[in-house]
Amino acid sequence: xxxxxxxxxxxxxxxxxxxxxxxxxxxxxxxxxxxxxxxxxxxxxxxxxxxxxxxxxxxxxxxxxxxxxxxxxxxxxxxxxxxxxxxxxxxxxxxxxxxxxxxxxxxxxxxxxxxxxxxxxxxxxxxxxxxxxxxxxxxxxxxxxxxxxxxxxxxxxxxxxxxxxxxxxxxxxxxxxxxxxxxxxxxxxxxxxxxxxxxxxxxxxxxxxxxxxxxxxxxxxxxxxxxxxxxxxxxxxxxxxxxxxxxxxxxxxxxxxxxxxxxxxxxxxxxxxxxxxxxxxxxxxxxxxxxxxxxxxxxxxxx
Length: 303
Fold this sequence. Notes:
Number of domains: 1
Largest sheet: none
CATH architecture: Alpha Horseshoe
CATH topology: Serine Threonine Protein Phosphatase 5, Tetratricopeptide repeat
Radius of gyration: 20 Å
Distance between the termini: 60 Å
Order of helices and strands: HHHHHHHHHHHHHHH
Low-confidence stretches: 261-276, 278-303
Number of helices: 15
């Protein structure tokens, strides 16, 4: 018996949440245009595909998908899905380094929030929009305003008992404290979020937290603990096959190893050069360089 389009979309959503991005993307690509008979189904499918593209590091493809979503006739689409698209566009924008575009997407989302009201399903989206706004303002260097957004997002998550949202907000607040040089406080936030992600089985975010913990220990001068956490982060990213996210903890771990005098410069080059070559095939390489050069080189990688 063939699955209905609704069942297929539910299956894709489940696989996405489980971190099986390859299988989920194959299912999305196998859905025929004939099956997407309603605008809402088409919108949902494109939204899922864009989310998956983000997870595997295909940000430009994700952006194209979201732009297609927002070009559709909104009269035939649930406005909640349109709001989801603006939230996703905000995320793609900061990941690509387009911070002004990210702010614009947040503002468009805020307009929709006013139009939609204050029901429970709206609050979930408001929490997500606040989270994206906080990340954007963090990248812009406005740490205090970023903290306000994440604290507001955390309050909504706690009210709704949203474990994922709570963990995300704690992680983001940890990043802000790390940026302020308050490393012990940053570790407190990270270590509060890690067991929540572990309970949820969220491998992607477990890896991110371990990476953040590793960076923080490196900044505090404890390179052995830094390396331990970065190696764990790297292995999870290898399993998830996100090339961009694989590279970030790898570069940091190599610098830590250098500080411990475990590697020669020549050996380091032969390890890192293939990673650079691989990353240069990705559309996301500019944002990787921005993060590597402007953030990690100055704040993380200095021994």
